[in-house]
Amino acid sequence: MTPSEIFNAPGPRYFSIASGRPFLTDLARGLTASLTAAGLDVSDAHIYLPTRRAARALSEAFLEAAGTNAALTPHIRALGDIDEDEFVLDDLGGTLDDELSLPPAISSANRRLILARLIAERDRVFFDGQHRWAGAISAADELGKLLDSLYTEEIDASDLDRIVPDGLAEHWQGSLEFLKIVTELWPNYLAEQSLFDPAARRIALIDKQTRRWEEVPPSRPIVIAGTTGSTPAVGRMMSTVAALPFGCVVLPGLDLRSPDHVWDAVDEPHPQSGLKSLIESLKVERGAIYSWPTADGNKSDPRADLVTMALRPADASDDWRQWAEEVKSNKDAISKALEGFSLVEARDEEREASIVASRLREVVSVPAQTAMLVTPDRDLARRVAIKMRRWGVVVDDSAGAPFANTPCGIFLRLTAAWLSDVSDPVHLMALLDHSRFGGGVSGKDRARAIGRVDRALRGLKPQGGFAGLRKRLELNSPLEGEFATFFETLERAAKLWPNPDASFTDRFEAHLAASEVLCGSDEEAGAERLWRGDDGDEGAALLATMRDSLGLITHDQSSEYVDIFTRLIAGGAVRRREPAHPRLSILGPLEARLQTADVIILAGLNEGVWPRDAAIDPFLSRPMRKELGLPSPERRIGLAAHDFAQLSASPEVLLTRSTRAGGKPTKPSRWIVRLKNILKGAQVLETVDVSQRSEAIAGLLDKPKDIKHIHAPKPLPPAEARPTEFAVTAIEKLLRDPYAIYARRILGLKKLDALSEDFSARHVGNLFHKIMEEYAHGPLPDVADREARLRALFDAHAPEYGYEARHDAFWRERVGDALVWLASWDTERRALGTPAVIEGKGEYSFDLNGTRYTLNARADRIDLLSTGGAFVIDYKTGDPPSLKMQQKFSPQLPLTGFIVEKGGFDELGAAPVDGFEYLKVVGRKAKERDAGLSGDDAAKLIAETRDGLVALLLHFADPENAYLSQPRPQYTDSFGDYDHLARRRERSAQGDGGGDE
């Protein structure tokens, strides 16, 4: 058959354009030749394709076939397939009467929230009496897909009664009952509102158009092309069009060459399963389907034959061995099939993205060459797009960016999180650091104000809402000047947030109003800054569509707002309008259907990614779906396989996957496994697998010109810059990590506390120090009342140290035990002497080689014993250092004793030290002994520590001695505050253990 004979062929006219052929190009050329030969205008034809992108590409193909940029093209419309997650609802080209005879479709936002309301009410009734709105919205999306399936597969809701509940698990019985309620309520609700379900309306319009063609066959050409007829209504339309005087149906890649036994074995996961199901429903024999005529004939395509052989059904794969033997005896037969065909298995997803990006960059360097990356993995697509920018190449990703992850979407989510808990420093700082936050100021004023807030909010989370936040900020610095403007902006936004009893709609409007307030600067209005750019436009449009439906949301707690809002904006996508490279594109499998390019890269070919795992229906089990007549989850795998087979049959194809993803091994796609097996059997796999070469090229992209090894820092400050005043606790740091003393005391660098610290052992320690200080200074209660006094002090001071009711489960019992023990211990200690120093400070100064040194200490408690001696006590809420460690690297208490002996504590004067000990307060075990010494042992260690201190100070007085970073590996601290400045982790990675060189 020649192209001019397409409409002269006996009807019904079903054609197929073979895999490996440029579908849209062949379609345009064939129709142009046929219509011209029949004396018809090309512009009179009406052509239906599965996607809008295919419709746009076909218009370009017709212009190319006409040889001009100014030709009239046919009427091309997107017919729509229910597949993947897209159902095209485009203009079918019917009459106005068709549109007016049917009620309008309910908006997608309204439909989503009504279904969510039903699910939320189900949860409230059948579970714990609470609405779970965030989860209900997610479930509504799945329920909507199920309703779409019921409508498009034309399954009546009454068919649910065919499912016998007695044989189902209890949760499936509940789900079935819920579905019966939904399928009864939903049509009634739509009828009351004079609305139509979008999917049902779509089917009705298709059927109206089909009936009109049947009643009055059109004189203009009608063509349906590229669709697999995934719904019964589309199948009926295809059957009608194929029988029209000037009608035909063109299928994508129907296998007309495989033997009957192979065709009979085709199952649902097979690439041909959708087409097989279609022609069976059309009652058309495979042999009655014509091959689409092309200018260069319909020769067999070696690549398509290879892919078809590799993906044969398991029951028909016996021919593999014979095929492999034929290839091994005649390598020329396979060379054409493998020409331009390559496979890469990268070590991880990052390297896979680099390999894909480098191949796209190669295409850019070849004039007029085009390339197309096809992957369902949106993370991989975004990685590749970002990597292309290293060469200044902008690639258009058809999926766009999720609105929730754009600057506008992120800012709205951050604002919602802060408004829900305005005193949370983490939420506030995340908001302030966002580029769209203005705070009523700009430039350096904005940066300074954010820095002041950051410093002020370090440590425990402020309590008491916005008032607590204000109090904490005022403690840090006065609210004046530009900082006052900055704070007033925060306060104005916070005041917009309604009370906990407000409706969701009120909260939503307050949220958007507050976001605009927070965005404003002294140079630009908040609304202008918030809604600018592509993401601002998309956000404004997305939120506008849902405004009228928000009254459907009822919620019990305002804390739910953030999760609900996040779910509401999920699914919105922002497609950039910036100029993209005209010869490169990134597409999902759905968008790539019927598309062609000189180089096609199929990426993300791991099981669970491409193909995706069989979808799990949360409302119907697999047997329940089968009983209803719904498609099995494997149907989508078959459709995905068809996409893969069509694309991989193209002239130049690169297949890629990563062997690890998220740090875990991956499983290759079943299609990759089959291709590798058949090529390995034919001993030609090595000609296809270019993994090593591609890995090497990608590695060179990030390989530095030279590698400079990092050595341990050896700061040598001059003698006059070296510190001469030390706390006794700093001496241990000087022994363990001199670099920390250099960074803190000489460079003046201080570690900031974390934002919104939670109550921890450190805060318990500070709290107990406060309790014991106040207890010791106050009047001593009777013995029987001492425990109660300690408990009262704990309850009084716990809130200011961050202790809340939620901490009781972990701390209450151990704190109670500690207070009981402390009351007994203090009574016993007072029998030996009197507390003379309570949280007191002492110091002693002395000369060494002409330099004046000062040693100071803050003692938790020093008792003056009845013997006239002093006993030094230090409270510990954790494990205290052992005596061995005190002798080597923890000289705090011996040095405190040295200061006592020298009269450094005014409350004591010079006094002999009878002993010292670390007192473990919390978590004591039965008969546990505290780490300390007394008598001559204590005096000996004090003398030894004094001599060690002199030697240490003299060592660091010498400007030739460096402040090394943790030079003793056996006593390193894994959490040193300045380790990152010393680059210890980097040095450890390069093999020097992180110590000195």
TrEMBL record:
Pfam family name, one: PDDEXK_1
The name this protein goes by in its record: Double-strand break repair protein AddB
Organismal lineage: Bacteria, Pseudomonadati, Pseudomonadota, Alphaproteobacteria, Parvularculales
Organism of this sequence: Hyphococcus lacteus
Database matches in InterPro entries: Ds_break_AddB, P-loop_NTPase, PDDEXK-like_dom_sf, PDDEXK_AddAB-type
Top-rank taxon, per record: Bacteria
Region (Disordered): 965-997
Domain PD-(D/E)XK endonuclease-like: 726-945
